[in-house]
Design brief:
single chain; mainly alpha
Length: 83
């Protein structure tokens, strides 16, 4: 399985939206810049393990649950990008 930044962003955005958190609040809880979280969510930035851990903690989910969902997203067929 190849790494897919878009799948990472989709997974984080899904959990964030389910928790009813804005990017501003989630990034603040995670201790990262809102712009950094935004770039991760759109797939233009690749988070490292520490950042994944911080985001998962902000979302109040175990990091392995976030990673598991990211893996599931990577297995889904890619959706066409809007140009």
């Amino acid at each position: 399985m190849d790494y897919d930044r878009d799948a990472v962003g989709r997974a984080i955005r899904k959990f964030r939206n389910e928790k009813g958190l804005t990017q501003e609040v989630c990034s603040g809880l995670a201790g990262i810049a809102r712009s950094h979280l935004a770039m991760i969510e759109v797939g233009s930035k690749q988070p490292n393990l520490e950042t994944i851990w911080k985001i998962a903690s902000a979302l109040k989910i175990p990091p392995h649950e976030l990673v598991k969902y990211i893996e599931a997203e990577m297995e889904r067929p890619a959706e066409p990008r809007n140009s």
